[in-house]
Amino acid sequence: MALDAPVREVWALVGDLARMPEYSAGLERVEVRRDSTGTPTAYICHFKPQTEGGERITHPEPISWYEPNHGWASTGSDKTDAFGVRNSLHMVTVQPSERGTTVTWLVHYNADSPEAIETNRTHLDQALTDIAERLIARFGGRILERYVDGP
Predict the structure, then answer these.
(1) CA 80 to CA 103: how far, in whole Å?
(2) How far apart are CA 150 and CA 142, in angstroms?
(3) Rounded to an integer, what distance in angstroms lies between the CA atom of residue 135 and that of residue 15?
(4) Among 11, 94, 133, 139, which one is most buried in terms of CB atoms within 10 A?
(5) pLDDT tens across 38-81, in order?
(6) Does domain 2-142 have CATH number 2.40.110.10?
(7) Where are the alpha helices (DSSP H) in 3-113?
(8) Contact present, 11 and 94 (Cβ < 8 Å)
(9) Quick one: DSSP state of residue 20?
(10) Is pLDDT of 110 > 70?
């Protein structure tokens, strides 16, 4: 997405993983673990139940890369998680652009069944669209590209 705000303003929100619930409707809260220098080493998402009285999912993600004002990446376990995926990668980058900041959010994962692939593809597309719309509402801007790959 292209946001109409400078990198430092966008990064103050997307670089602070504990603030994810501010721009993601599905999250109740996010805990962040940090090393002795204050650099995030992991985050734990506490998802809202998808139905009234439904299950609350807690999902930990180790951070494999974090560079202030540039981006972060998290990598999931090689064991299948609560969403039916394994070996996931989330990578969020911010780059200066002519009008402000370009934010890219990439997600890759493996799943053991076609159903898990399709379910996660649908949910991630909805979640990332929600995130983009909320960030655009906050900063102004537009979605540049939305790409959902096949199995």
Answers:
(1) 28
(2) 24
(3) 13
(4) 94
(5) 999 999 999 999 888 888 999 999 999 999 999 999 998 899 88
(6) no
(7) 7-14
(8) yes
(9) G
(10) yes
